């Protein structure tokens, strides 16, 4: 169980605001932290890792108190059992892939390093240096290194955002597979709705430092406050369905807009259809305006 309470005054471009988050997350849960740029997502991860200090807070992980401002407890980062993966890999350039992964393991275990490399289909690259790897491969190594130490908590800060679409999809599947296999509670920051739908057990949506929604992907994505008021028309380029929800990618002029609809709505839509997307009492309504398929 992870119990977290954080308060910290942040300096945003529009003035100061308060990061104010309180939550409980159960063991082995995948929490996705979602929200606009500047909301305080990275700062929250940094506070959990001990890289920044909150003005006021409490953090308990698996029965161990890492921070308690009232009792003056604040474990330094190296005493907090976390694995951290950033957007920019941060591997040791002078170490091989295998050495990078073994670094920080509580009990050196070459067999485990090999098992992880096998799982990520990276065995053939184990003696390479990071400079000889692609971006996707480097990020895989960063993830393996964070997992290898079997931390009590895994923190991932937009680990897929610097990768091309195909690599990001493959790595996303691996993150899920690792998390399921090793059952490490994971907090991941992402801007991607696909990450929300494919990875998260629960989603924390924060805006301006405040919790706007906290629940299952479905509860959060379809929550009534989710969409600002708007109305636009565009052409459906792609629909991707996961469980009960589908993401529509719609070209509106030169912009690409993504909206989430339920599967039933999506079933009636085809790529190439012209759509009207509007909100009615803050719940998006998607209607077909025209279908080229009717004319062929
Ligand atoms: N130690 C700090 N003290 C005060 N303000 C800070 C501190 N660290 C970050 N900030 C400010 O807090 C705001 C939130 O930053 P943060 O990086 O957490 O946002 P974010 O939600 O991760 O954004 P993005 O999605 O763009 O990465 C920013 O305006 C930043 O300048």
Automatic annotation (TrEMBL):
GO cellular component, alphabetical, reads: membrane
Under Gene Ontology molecular function, one entry of this record is: ATP hydrolysis activity
Lineage of source species: Bacteria, Pseudomonadati, Aquificota, Aquificia, Aquificales
Q: Which UniProt keywords apply?
A: ATP-binding, Cell membrane, Ion transport, Iron, Iron transport, Membrane, Nucleotide-binding, Transport
Query: What is the name attached to this protein's record?
Result: Molybdenum ABC transporter ATP-binding protein
Kindly give the CDD domains that the UniProt entry links to this protein. Answer: ABC_Carb_Solutes_like
SMART domains reported in the protein's UniProt record: AAA
Organism name: Hydrogenobacter thermophilus (strain DSM 6534 / IAM 12695 / TK-6)
The UniProt record lists the ABC transporter domain at 2-233
């Amino acid at each position: 169980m992870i119990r977290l309470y954080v308060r910290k005054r942040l300096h945003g471009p529009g003035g100061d605001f308060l990061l104010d988050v309180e939550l409980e997350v159960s063991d082995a849960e995948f929490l996705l932290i979602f929200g606009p740029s500047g909301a305080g997502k990275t700062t929250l991860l940094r506070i959990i890792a001990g890289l920044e200090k909150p003005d006021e807070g409490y953090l308990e992980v698996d029965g161990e108190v890492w921070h308690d401002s009232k009792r003056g407890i604040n474990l330094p980062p190296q005493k907090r059992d976390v694995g951290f993966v950033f957007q920019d890999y941060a591997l040791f350039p002078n170490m091989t892939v295998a050495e990078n992964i073994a670094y920080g393991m509580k009990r050196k275990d070459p067999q485990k390093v090999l098992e992880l490399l096998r799982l990520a289909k990276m065995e053939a690259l184990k003696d390479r240096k990071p400079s000889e790897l692609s971006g996707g491969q480097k990020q895989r190594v960063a993830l393996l290194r964070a997992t290898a130490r079997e931390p009590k908590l895994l923190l991932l800060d937009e680990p897929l955002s610097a990768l091309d679409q195909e690599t990001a999809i493959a790595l996303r599947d691996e993150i899920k597979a690792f998390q399921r296999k090793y059952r490490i509670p994971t907090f991941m920051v992402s801007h991607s709705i696909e990450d929300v739908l494919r990875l998260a057990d629960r989603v924390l949506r924060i805006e301006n430092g405040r919790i706007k929604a906290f629940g299952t992907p479905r509860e959060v994505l379809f929550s009534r406050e989710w969409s600002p008021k708007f109305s636009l028309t565009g052409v459906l380029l792609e629909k991707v369905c996961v469980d009960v929800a589908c993401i529509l990618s719609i070209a509106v002029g030169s912009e690409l807009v993504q909206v989430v609809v339920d599967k039933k709505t999506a079933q009636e839509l085809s790529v190439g259809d012209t759509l009207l997307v509007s909100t009615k009492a803050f719940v998006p309504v998607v209607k077909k305006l025209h279908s080229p398929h009717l004319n062929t």
